[in-house]
Amino acid sequence: MNKKNRLRRKKQNYTVREAGTSPGLVYIDENALEPVITLHQLNDKSYESKKLESLKDIAKILEDKSYTFWVDIKGFGSEEMFEILGRDLNINKLVLEDITVTYQRPKVEEYDGYVFAVSRMLLLDEDKHLDNSQLSFILTDNALFTFKESYSDCLEPVRQRLKAGKGNIRTAGSSYIMYAIMDIIVDTYFEILGTWSEELDEIEDRLLDKPDKSIMYDTQLIKRNLINIRRVSWPERDKLNDILRSDSPLITDQTKLYIRDAYDHCIQIIDIVESLKEISASNIDMYLSLISNRMNEIMKVLTIISSIFIPLTFIAGIYGMNFADRDPVSGKLMPENMPELYEPHGYLYTMLIMGLIAVLQVIYFWRRGWFK
Amino acid sequence: MNKKNRLRRKKQNYTVREAGTSPGLVYIDENALEPVITLHQLNDKSYESKKLESLKDIAKILEDKSYTFWVDIKGFGSEEMFEILGRDLNINKLVLEDITVTYQRPKVEEYDGYVFAVSRMLLLDEDKHLDNSQLSFILTDNALFTFKESYSDCLEPVRQRLKAGKGNIRTAGSSYIMYAIMDIIVDTYFEILGTWSEELDEIEDRLLDKPDKSIMYDTQLIKRNLINIRRVSWPERDKLNDILRSDSPLITDQTKLYIRDAYDHCIQIIDIVESLKEISASNIDMYLSLISNRMNEIMKVLTIISSIFIPLTFIAGIYGMNFADRDPVSGKLMPENMPELYEPHGYLYTMLIMGLIAVLQVIYFWRRGWFK
Amino acid sequence: MNKKNRLRRKKQNYTVREAGTSPGLVYIDENALEPVITLHQLNDKSYESKKLESLKDIAKILEDKSYTFWVDIKGFGSEEMFEILGRDLNINKLVLEDITVTYQRPKVEEYDGYVFAVSRMLLLDEDKHLDNSQLSFILTDNALFTFKESYSDCLEPVRQRLKAGKGNIRTAGSSYIMYAIMDIIVDTYFEILGTWSEELDEIEDRLLDKPDKSIMYDTQLIKRNLINIRRVSWPERDKLNDILRSDSPLITDQTKLYIRDAYDHCIQIIDIVESLKEISASNIDMYLSLISNRMNEIMKVLTIISSIFIPLTFIAGIYGMNFADRDPVSGKLMPENMPELYEPHGYLYTMLIMGLIAVLQVIYFWRRGWFK
Amino acid sequence: MNKKNRLRRKKQNYTVREAGTSPGLVYIDENALEPVITLHQLNDKSYESKKLESLKDIAKILEDKSYTFWVDIKGFGSEEMFEILGRDLNINKLVLEDITVTYQRPKVEEYDGYVFAVSRMLLLDEDKHLDNSQLSFILTDNALFTFKESYSDCLEPVRQRLKAGKGNIRTAGSSYIMYAIMDIIVDTYFEILGTWSEELDEIEDRLLDKPDKSIMYDTQLIKRNLINIRRVSWPERDKLNDILRSDSPLITDQTKLYIRDAYDHCIQIIDIVESLKEISASNIDMYLSLISNRMNEIMKVLTIISSIFIPLTFIAGIYGMNFADRDPVSGKLMPENMPELYEPHGYLYTMLIMGLIAVLQVIYFWRRGWFK
Amino acid sequence: MNKKNRLRRKKQNYTVREAGTSPGLVYIDENALEPVITLHQLNDKSYESKKLESLKDIAKILEDKSYTFWVDIKGFGSEEMFEILGRDLNINKLVLEDITVTYQRPKVEEYDGYVFAVSRMLLLDEDKHLDNSQLSFILTDNALFTFKESYSDCLEPVRQRLKAGKGNIRTAGSSYIMYAIMDIIVDTYFEILGTWSEELDEIEDRLLDKPDKSIMYDTQLIKRNLINIRRVSWPERDKLNDILRSDSPLITDQTKLYIRDAYDHCIQIIDIVESLKEISASNIDMYLSLISNRMNEIMKVLTIISSIFIPLTFIAGIYGMNFADRDPVSGKLMPENMPELYEPHGYLYTMLIMGLIAVLQVIYFWRRGWFK
């Protein structure tokens, strides 16, 4: 029941842009969340994080090149915000559209003065339901903007590392922060695959113990999720590869060294997805063969019992027939009618014959291996 | 029933050019529709749309380079029209053939002075039947011709945007209008896929609630449609890529920027088609496993009831046998024949034994998990 | 029955060259048909077609460069003919071998002074049996030779066009005639696929109306034919592509423009073949699910009837037992033996109980949806 | 039975080099066969073939550049032989290892002064068991060495052609002899595929006439063999392609022209293998559908007979019940107990009712098409 | 049972790096094993092998360029060790991370002054459980470091060859030792595949003799292992190819010659894996068809016996009915009620009719081939 609901709640993430709308016009849904803007300002010495009311002064803030900035924007409910980005930071309209129409594939595009990138952030909620949301990046020389439609994310560890100042996250510039976020997103894929891998193991255990219908539901559920994650990880791989081969000055060679690592991880993700898909296919095969096997066993029971008792019942039926021993009118004896009934040991013989038939059949079925 | 008809009405779109006809000769079917020619004349200041009787003066009209023109031609029932295009606008015969033989794959071909392109327009009629028609483009420096065999189309939003003058549709030249049309066609694919995605979800719900034969029909129907849309979207993707890499001066760099967007959409279409195909395959798997499961359950009922009652009936049959207690002639007692029948509590004991057998079988089946 | 024979008659077209024969030696089977040589001689003004006895004077005839020649050779039963080709026209031995060993893949090979090409001509005979034969081409500057082992072909429309002189078939040179023939061969594929597409539609209708075993046979038959046509069309595509990219002066740029069209057609063929293969696979899936469904229905009938009547028969059997009401010797009453039989309304009550059991079972099966 | 054994006898050809042995050390098994060395010495005028005791003088023999030599070595039971090859002819140790460890894929490798190549020779023994052995080539400027572990081969036709001197086999140099051998090996693949193609046809006929379990065994057997031949033909194709693109002076342009032919053949082999694989898959599909169909028919018979007779037997059972017509003690009549039994025409009516039920059921099953 | 446990014990090797950790920081698990460091010091004259306490003096040791060193490190339980590597040998932090996070794909990466490579070592324990561990390499000009998390490995033969000094293992430098180790790892794959190939053969034998459920379990187990080995061998192939094409001076041309050999082996591994996968798929097909066949046979037995005896039992039931021959009250004869019972030979005739029915049914089933 629970399973059914989980399967049912899963919605395809195929949001559809209304056909025929003019491209490059930012469309803000009336249900869009109030934007929450967090500014992280850091260099090798200091780190500060504060909430911004709006992006009004952002161009001025970014002029201080002695800092690296991460502007973390969640919620799109302000048309003005996007206007500022277009006007003050000179972001192309198509980019702003791609940020707000949150069904882009992972990709990277180089523009004059900035780089635009999209990652798909996968989160597994407490019901193991896969939430697939878009994180968009705008990378400038000293700042990284990230955009997300909803408030939840998986970037807490990055914020912790910024605060702690461990590693070179504070000193390696904005592109390194972008790497750190992209890397954590890919790492989350590992965790999700780990969950499913365990669930597949658990399904397999159930397959061996007591296979039932839920195995089919659960495996299909995992298969769907694997289809979704694969749809995400292939273009993610291409995106990381594009970044690796990009010659934009905004992406430092040091960052590329790390991106290569994330690229390796992404290939591993794809490997694992393919393996898990094969494993779930083979679980389904096994399940179907178990159903067939069980059917065979059910039929064997039916056939053995029917084959033994139906002929015996027939014999009993014969001696239950009422052929008269005397003519009802004349009262003359008709001894030739069913003489067995008047044999002194007729009953005994009949029972022995029945027993013999039963034994022969049991031997026959035994030989065919039906009792194994 | 309804489903059956829908499946039956679907026709393969494999129109066949008569083998052996000379290439490049325009062939007008006698059932061809009367052409309806609409001329859209626009620049940054004005926009006008009017019906043309014929293309006679089109060469002269197009000479006014201060305007961008969109000549929207529907219905091919005039041989003269194609002759004018060949003569006055110098369009290659092969191109004219490709326009009229409406089973081309999406493609783009550059000729001297113009670009020829083909899109496949997919429309879903009220019966959810997929209508696959061809829209051909001829793009010159200041004009776009579109050709469609029938009157219905999905371009109303483009006409609205031309009228409204929003965005840069009026000022960005003829290639931008071509982009706008191509983009809307691809966006229609999204809508259609959305319909099918919902239908697959609905099928899945039915799978979980009350699976019946119609699931198979409906899924196959969707699969067919997916096959058709995939046949269209792969070459569409190639076409858009060819436009991106084209160095024809007729396609502006600005337009290419937008075409890149349409190209991204087209890749997403392909992604979604593949995902939906996998989902429908997995629905069929699930359905087949449900049939097998149901079969198992039917057989279990039959086997349990038969296995319990057939042996009991046999026992009842034994004590229904008429072995005589006296010799019919001599009248001598034959007490050894079926002495159980004369036991004071024979009936009771028999019933108890029968009950015991039934209970043992129930326990046996319980243990094997057949009651679960 | 008819179907079976059709399936049986189909022969694999895997003719085998005898292993170890010396390459380049023309091998003429003794059953080879008498050659029929037709010379078509044409230019923009005149057209003549005549039968030739042999190729003896062919070198001299071809010297007249003011004409384009098509030498149409059918039947290989003359070793002398091939010797003349080797000696007078300087054709490589390997080429002559490839002409006579008629199981080549479509291909094109450039030699000094001529181009050698192979097409596979598919014909559907009246029994819808696929005949797969080889048409070989030798293209020189002003002549085209075609070679076919048997007399039947699908080139009549080309001959008609030559006679009629429509289009540029008379003036565009020998390579254009080669194109015209190759194009008509590919067009024939369309017609054949059209036939199969219709047959698949008809099979699908039968699937929905009254599925029977013949569906499997017919679909397999079509699948086989599709496998054959795919084996032919992939290399055909490669061949046309090779011609497109060829820089041989024998193939004019104008011809290449047309070849591009044939290439497009060939890609469409491949698309259609793949689609039809998927459709036939999905027909088979549907058929198998229908068999399973039908099995379920059969089993339901059996189970419902058995489950209702077997227990009732058991009850009837109980009251058919002959437990004695009196001791046969003493004649003493044994009222405790089957007292129900002596109940005034025992029969009525029994019938009521039986009816109740039956009704309960019907309700049970109804609830499980077995009557739907 | 015979089939089973054939299937069982088949051994995987996955010989395993002992892990960790030093590479390049020739390892001679103690069971290795005594080497049989045949020297073929030929030029345009003469041909001689003689057995050699050992390779001691081989370097000196090969110095006579007016001859072409083919040194045909079978059996590896002489370590000295390989030492001579290494020392006198300067053959790399890794090459010698590859010759003796006979599980190489087809490949070609160019070394200083010689070319090393490997072909897989497939032979079909009288039990249609596939024997997959390695033939290694060392090609020098005027000599060809071939190495085979066992004595049997398929090269007799090449020896015949050398003796007969037909074609250019004697004059075209050592690389042409290598081609001739490689070509005959590929041609043998055709013969083997021909055998299997016929067997598949024969299986198909059996499928249509009387399908039984052996169809599954036989098809699997063919599938296995197809897997093996495909494993061989893909690298064979690559090898021939490598030779075509090789710029080694040892391989003449003339030979390359012929190799192109062998390459075409190899592609055809791959085509045929794929087609045969699809055909055997479709045979298995058909077989499985036939099993399901047969099951349906068996179940129909059971269900029809059970459904008709079980209810009738129940009715008979009712009137076989012994409800008493008189109280055993008081002797009072109990006419309400089973009054039907005392109806004058009770038996007749009962039989008519039974007949009616049977007829209704037959009509029901007829309508559902179960008698078709 | 044993099988079940083996299947159950198998764990996915998808270790997961904790998301969000800073890259390039070496993370040492508290359960990490105490490092065991073995230094092999060799040149053409001498060979010495000794245990090292720590890596403290390693930089000094390596300064002696007259020796080649192999530093074999097992167990990662010392953070200091990695610090030394980073500080004294200048190894990049990301490399050290990749060494310790042991779920890398096989890869090779060139750094300044050294080459980093990863191999996956597969070991089959006594329960045929596949152990997949990582062996990392750092190759410098005169030294090779290998890193393994646990103590067991398959490198004993390499150590033996170093000791024995056979071949050129002592003189060919550090890259040759790396090759020797990589080669032995790939060779181990062959051994493992050999084991599974044999097991598949054994499963196939069981399929032919007495197919049971364990076939499914065992085949799935092998399939899983094949999935794992394929996941390892594809990137292994890419890695070896990368080494072949590398232009690092650390990898000598001589070594590359040998690597080409290992590369060939790796391609063979992939071939074999694919073949074994197809074979196990075809085993499963065969098994499923056998289950279906067996089902058919079970059903045939049931149907034959039921069809014969159910109608006969019905007839017996008819003559077991108690239609009275006299009116219980009036005592009047009712001879029309069941006159057959009073036929002198009624019983005989009945038995003959029953026998006839049985014989007709047997003939019917015989004709349908059910006794075959």
Automatic annotation (TrEMBL), chains A, B, C, D, E:
It is a multi-pass membrane protein. Its main location: membrane. GO terms for cellular component: plasma membrane. InterPro entries: CorA_cytoplasmic_dom (IPR045861), CorA_TM1_TM2 (IPR045863), Mg/Co-transport_prot_CorA (IPR004488), MgTranspt_CorA/ZnTranspt_ZntB (IPR002523). Keywords: Cell membrane, Ion transport, Magnesium, Membrane, Transmembrane, Transmembrane helix, Transport. Gene3D superfamilies: CorA soluble domain-like, Magnesium transport protein CorA, transmembrane region. The chain crosses the membrane at residues 301-321, 347-366. It is found in: Cell membrane; Membrane. One of its GO terms (molecular function) is magnesium ion binding. Belongs to the CorA metal ion transporter (MIT) (TC 1.A.35) family. NCBIfam families: corA (TIGR00383). Mediates influx of magnesium ions. This is Magnesium transport protein CorA. It comes from Pedobacter westerhofensis. The lineage of its organism: Bacteria, Pseudomonadati, Bacteroidota, Sphingobacteriia, Sphingobacteriales. The gene is corA.
